[in-house]
User: Fold this.
Amino acid sequence: MSYIKINNDNLISEIIIDRPEALNAMNSDVLSELTDAMKKVKSDDKTGVVIITGAGDKAFIAGADIKAMQQMNAKEAFDYGKAGQQLTMMIETSSKPVIAAVNGFALGGGCELALACHMRIVSENASFGQPEVKLGLLPGWGGTQRLPKIVGVGKAIELITTGKIINAEESYRIGLANKICPQNQLMSESRKLASSILKNGPRAISSSLRCIHDGLTMSIKEGMDIEVEEFGELFRHDERMEGLTAFIEKRDPEFRH
Ligand code: CAA
Assistant:
């Protein structure tokens, strides 16, 4: 893999997108390498939490590759859109939490990739935007669907129809960013968040993610049905006994990841 690096330490896998000459913009090669990297960490026993970030201190991902898109016909654009959507679906439905460590520009497809992650920790110089309409395009990797769910319909329509770019403060204010930190603390803050998740039961975490994700497209009744099924299901596994017993014995639980 030439555009993607994976580092693994203490159950945390960091996936780094490294294409500095194009501010980490995602051409088909980056897209397919990132998809392979996600598949790898999803099935890897040594991964409990995934962090996705961009190399360098300027860009997370500056979007889909504009130069490549200039050469595409409708069929190729459809396939490129589909590949980006499949990647963002794979991230969103991951049973392991995925954190976007947004270290700079997260524009177009880069913003959409961050939206698909479960949480976003951002550096002070981060910025977000869906500037596709400025190019005569629309967000094609899930932005029209995920942005309204995260920031509300009115704000999403404003961002998508104006194509304006917002800074880290604004992204935090509208609920896009979970936390802002100085750039030199971005990875340590993201790892700290990952470590606090890793203290908890992995089965309980993945069941919670499933309930939240599936519930977003269901009625409250259907969502509650799934929740109670998953709640009961947890009682078939040792993990819950360790958690409950540790509380009663006044000690920290030791969950196996
Ligand atoms: N695709 C291809 N190349 C890109 C790129 C992109 N999305 N973004 C930046 N680059 C390239 C530039 O062309 C430039 O390369 P050259 O030196 O060969 O000209 C290099 O990266 C550095 O970029 P700039 O000189 O423009 O850097 P800057 O600091 O002046 O500006 C920026 C930074 C504001 C992010 C600007 O590069 C920019 O506006 N980029 C495009 C952002 C964008 O519109 N993204 C959405 C793409 S469409 C999309 O993503 C569709 C979808 O939903 C799937």
